[in-house]
Amino acid sequence: MTLWGGRFSGSTDERMKRFNDSFSFDWRLYAVDIQGSGAYASALQRAGLLTEDEQQAIHAGLEQILSEFAEDRFAAHPTDEDIHTAIERRLTELIGPAAGKLHTGRSRNDQVAVDLCLWLLESIQRTHDHLAELQAALIDQAETHISLIMPGYTHLQPAQPVLFSHWIMSYFWMFQRDQARLHDCARRASVCPLGSGALAGNPFPIDREALAADLGMSAVTPNSIDAVSNRDHIVEFLFCAALIGTHLSRLAEDLILFSSPGYRFLQLDEAYTTGSSLMPQKRNPDSLELTRGKSGRLIGNLVGLLTVLKGLPSTYNKDLQEDKDPLFDAVDTLNMTLPVVTGVIETMLPNGEAMNAALDTSLLATDIADYLVEHGVPFRDAHHVVGRLVMQAEQKQVPLASLSLGDFQAESPVFASDVEDSFSFERAISRKNVPGGTATEAVNHQITSAKERLADHQGSARSSSE
Amino acid sequence: MTLWGGRFSGSTDERMKRFNDSFSFDWRLYAVDIQGSGAYASALQRAGLLTEDEQQAIHAGLEQILSEFAEDRFAAHPTDEDIHTAIERRLTELIGPAAGKLHTGRSRNDQVAVDLCLWLLESIQRTHDHLAELQAALIDQAETHISLIMPGYTHLQPAQPVLFSHWIMSYFWMFQRDQARLHDCARRASVCPLGSGALAGNPFPIDREALAADLGMSAVTPNSIDAVSNRDHIVEFLFCAALIGTHLSRLAEDLILFSSPGYRFLQLDEAYTTGSSLMPQKRNPDSLELTRGKSGRLIGNLVGLLTVLKGLPSTYNKDLQEDKDPLFDAVDTLNMTLPVVTGVIETMLPNGEAMNAALDTSLLATDIADYLVEHGVPFRDAHHVVGRLVMQAEQKQVPLASLSLGDFQAESPVFASDVEDSFSFERAISRKNVPGGTATEAVNHQITSAKERLADHQGSARSSSE
Amino acid sequence: MTLWGGRFSGSTDERMKRFNDSFSFDWRLYAVDIQGSGAYASALQRAGLLTEDEQQAIHAGLEQILSEFAEDRFAAHPTDEDIHTAIERRLTELIGPAAGKLHTGRSRNDQVAVDLCLWLLESIQRTHDHLAELQAALIDQAETHISLIMPGYTHLQPAQPVLFSHWIMSYFWMFQRDQARLHDCARRASVCPLGSGALAGNPFPIDREALAADLGMSAVTPNSIDAVSNRDHIVEFLFCAALIGTHLSRLAEDLILFSSPGYRFLQLDEAYTTGSSLMPQKRNPDSLELTRGKSGRLIGNLVGLLTVLKGLPSTYNKDLQEDKDPLFDAVDTLNMTLPVVTGVIETMLPNGEAMNAALDTSLLATDIADYLVEHGVPFRDAHHVVGRLVMQAEQKQVPLASLSLGDFQAESPVFASDVEDSFSFERAISRKNVPGGTATEAVNHQITSAKERLADHQGSARSSSE
Amino acid sequence: MTLWGGRFSGSTDERMKRFNDSFSFDWRLYAVDIQGSGAYASALQRAGLLTEDEQQAIHAGLEQILSEFAEDRFAAHPTDEDIHTAIERRLTELIGPAAGKLHTGRSRNDQVAVDLCLWLLESIQRTHDHLAELQAALIDQAETHISLIMPGYTHLQPAQPVLFSHWIMSYFWMFQRDQARLHDCARRASVCPLGSGALAGNPFPIDREALAADLGMSAVTPNSIDAVSNRDHIVEFLFCAALIGTHLSRLAEDLILFSSPGYRFLQLDEAYTTGSSLMPQKRNPDSLELTRGKSGRLIGNLVGLLTVLKGLPSTYNKDLQEDKDPLFDAVDTLNMTLPVVTGVIETMLPNGEAMNAALDTSLLATDIADYLVEHGVPFRDAHHVVGRLVMQAEQKQVPLASLSLGDFQAESPVFASDVEDSFSFERAISRKNVPGGTATEAVNHQITSAKERLADHQGSARSSSE
């Protein structure tokens, strides 16, 4: 028995049925579907459309179905075209005709809409938590190795010395912005569409605000036509996930590079590497390569749903069923990837020696230019002076610091013997003491501020979806 | 003369120069680049790195360059590889060596980063305004035709009667969510990266908070490595643009359909249609088809930048220059499309007669089921009863309302003669009187609320970027 | 026991293992993996690296494993990280140490590469077949209703009369191009990478050409570094799938529109529609809406893999494991969607009456202009004359054909009474008798040619992958 | 004067006009539009619809317009909504009313369709040529440095020694597949849509085959409805471009890595690097980073057009105007990027010393395992033996080759003193002498074959579009 058979004389094509049915994947919504139905039963009772007894029977039945799912003993029927049908069918078996009253004024359109909101809010919370654990691991590494100096690169070419802790904290802030975006997304997902019917609104005097409050949501949708086909919050989550994936791919790229033999700044723990079926010596950073690759599917999911929505007429169209697979896949991908990356970060070992070996005095060229600036030379001129010194050192095949004072003065008479003080990596670091700079003091301040944010948003994340 | 020539002995390949140069498109940043440099000069002066005179000379020079651009008489040189180089070169011509001090502690990396933030904030404001005008046009149409009844469709099949005003207001709320997303994006774009240097932070005692305040920005970036390669706010804007484009594509689809000969619910103004080079009778909704098509490029821009960012090592890499074209294109596309759609909405004429002709009593089938519900029949049973009545009417080839009371009672003895009261489109409309429903009262309430939001966010949009 | 444990002292993190393992999805490659291993065993034997006995043992073992999979009784172990490991592990259980010789000179890199080629070739063949069935259904409808006339639309506005059979055949040719693209893709997938080792080539004197021939492939890869990370054929297939999906989405859009109440040119069979949980009268074209929506995931899959490949260093990187999910999903999606669409086409009923009712004489405006052209008026002038006549008819609210001869002559003295012959839909149709035109004769010719192509490519498709 | 004004009473909104007009970008089609019109005029004359004189006047007029464009002195009018209108308007000015006959039986729909085919065919030819130059540069580098040995990497971890020439040739074959795909695309773009009218076919007895032949095209479109909205060849080209972009991004990644200080295997010529505005010592591989970034826009263009096509009703819809920008952008991007990459390859210097320094005997672990295999040990066991040896060497912090024979024999008694012969990078290289392997002989063979292919496809590319 389908929910809609009355006016049909023929039967559904078998391949069509398989094509159309969504129970094979939307069963994952069981808990939120039951939650939504429970709240709706209460709303119907408050509106006088269910007796107290009927309401209690429905709640008891739903409770039992919830256990059946949770304990993996829910028996699906071939006619269960989706999770909503399956639960209604089972409820009818359990409590009889009263089950048929639960759909009063409700359509699968507003039912699935609210289910998705609830499921999304939970998923955002879980993603929040996974991200926070990763952020905590980044802070830990930064604190443990607060003053290791490494070459900073731009364009993958040596640029200026930076603290290892500063580098690793740069990822904290990317994920912090992701947290903020997830939080904003949760706010928009917390608007309750239930009570919108199929498209025109509910004809019975349901108290929608009370219903929303029962479900822990913060507002009700203001237009029923929009409500039943609004998937903005899902696309927005997929965007957040794609951007998280992009950040993870950049982190993975850095870690793969810095643990490669050309750098060796980091050693990955064996637990996160694998070997080769052919080459006995290999230890490959598969965890990070997969992480980098996962950004592809996350972006693909986003594109997929945007394409589904493009040009769709208003209200519900079945195309929207294609929102679930990308959403489920994005959530699963993040749930799987984030803890692995957290594990990688927690267990990796920075190699201070290798970092040190890679520090070349040409990294201090800008500091030499700054020396001239501090002695009154306009920066642009100073830059050219030092550029010529760098070229000279390169031609002589010596480090910049090994040029003689005479060489320096030949390019600019402003140089005096104290220029040699500028050839200190520590000094170069400590000079960058503005907020956000790489000086140890600034990084310590950064870490303190990061810890506060971490504490904050965990609180707020929870409140936003409750 | 380039900014970086000192250490180079050879010269740049000519094709490489064309490939690398960005002046041909990034000249659009001239005003924000000058704004950023002006604020930076003040910061240098406050930090004692420029004299009062030097600062004034720089400000005067920048002012003049601004006029030259604004009046379209800025003379570019072949060596102007980007807008930053061009302005610095011109400033040197105008005020001499003092211009060379402006780059003290500053890199093109933090310079272009802050330019993009400022440009983006302005663009968001403009998009806000264009969206608000479109929203106002939607409200106008809703108010003017508050009680026109049209068939509501789901799956492009007739579902239930709805108010035309309810349908058109459904788009208001999509754009309202877009406004909220833009607002959140602006908040994140309002964090000032200037003072981050190339990647390690500024070595001079610049007051970054004061600098941010001068630029009307609300905070400073907490990590210089992240700051110089953070393009999150740009990707986020591209996402907002893609979703706005998707909403516009759905509106366009509805309008194309409803103005097509199969529906004729709307007549588009000639000013927004065009003819055919071959077929003399044609009047084509080109404006709306192009609008629908523009969603493609907006999604393409988003994908493009996400792909650029994927797997990029941290800090600045030249790949990031590929952020500008998609950003500029997305802003231009919205600036061009939104006013046209606003014009279409403002000038289109709803055709009440055609809507009326399309109202069929099968649209009231749910109301008949509700009649049974109100007489105690569980909805699921009522649904099946009415399903059979619909099938009967179809077989007899008569409207549902033309079945006799006997026919009704044959399916369910609960039917009495007052069932005929349910065959009223007006009554069906007025029953959906929950918040968000299609009852006239509910829609009026919706419009009031929409006007308040419109007034609100225009205020807040302004404040967010100032 | 992993394939690569020797040099590892620690163990793999449990979450990492789940993250890394691919057996949960790549078990689908079992048949092709066994096929590849069988051929490789023969090659080893021919090169003197396996004895005849060892080879026979391996073949027998593989045969048994194939049955175990086919009969769904293959017992997986927790250490089976992928299908290759699982089969090698099982083979060792079955035949002992000889199994360990199968990996001589072979790496999982070239093993998985050849598996994917073989699996892809099979999938292309299946897609070919599904497409051909759909094409046959289109031809059937065209032949059965060869001379039904319907309005042709451009911009969804009435343009010129066309044959229903001409319209439906337009889809035949889209799919015909898809067939050609698949064929080209198969050609490129038929180049055998086995014998490339991990990246450097096989150190043993394997006869790669014979190996390729054993596997029914047409050539061997010319560079081992390229061979192990080449996924071009998979991306190319995903592109073909995305374009097929786009064609299907256009067909679905047409069918949804033409079966909607605004048109009613087609009636979809009940077997491919579903009802509503709320509205008893609904019959929704879910099959077609889902089909339209599936284009999203197909495009998403393509984008996903392109993003994975972007910026990847050469040779094998684990990111490439992300090729399988999008490939499997695309193949499954096509295998599921195409037969449903074929069913929709086979069972739908064109409604000649509704088409006829929608024919308006303004559709013949171009024919009236052509009348003038045939009497020597330049087309551009004729177009303007008829444009004014159309406007006149519109203002008088009469059909174009109802204007008097005087009205016609007032706009152009060239009109004579025989202009009324032009007001014939049949005549308008029959005039378009160039190749590809909508005249019945031309469409019959088109159908004949389509049948030939269909016969042709089925043959060639088979030959390309065998 | 527009082409379609007759039936319009009002005028077009000014913003709408700007939105709708495409002349600002489609003027680039001028030469192919003129080519198409010239051929169409001949066809009309052959069909008796133009006199010999009219035809000659049209050809002369078109010729003159072509010069005006080529010499940059074509004067556009504000009413020129697109290139087709502009040329027809100018032709009328030049030759009077005969110009109005050129549109007989032709619509902008089939006109723009053929223009795009012709423009695409030219662009494919140009891309072919640029790719071939890049391929030639790759071959040159391979030949010049045929026997340099470098570490081969998988997962960015050292794997086995390979020839530098083998590595660089791996890119030859990626581009070779791109050439093949472009060739297939050209075949499909060479089907002439002219003669399809607006959608229904041409009502005049035009000889379409002769017309196609005149335009150098190989066939005529078989269905006019399909022909006017078929953009498959454009999407297919965008796919080819996206995949070329992906290949270029991989090459760029390799070159950026291998020229970075962690590797130094290559030195890029100064002509293809740039400096830093802040850091005097920098030399950044901007050319390659931009190249890597360009893959983003190429993928974005593909996604954009696929999204435009998704769900579009059949025949021409104005959304299709959005095909041009992505096509033009993709062609421009390739035309700009490919020569730069060719320049990078031509001028870069491999650094044999740095490669040599990076060769570690653990790269020969597989060869040691192969030693055991050759002495009868199953490979899987050999792999474990060598894995333990690698671990031992690592623990002792000595190269694998420095373990004593005793150490070797402790793990496997099969080892004898001749195992030391296996510690030769040259020997490891020369053992991979299967087709596609890295042995010098195999690479020489590969280069010979590459040169043949290069010669071949240049011939065939030309023939395909002529």
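The first helix of chain B runs from residue 14 to 20.
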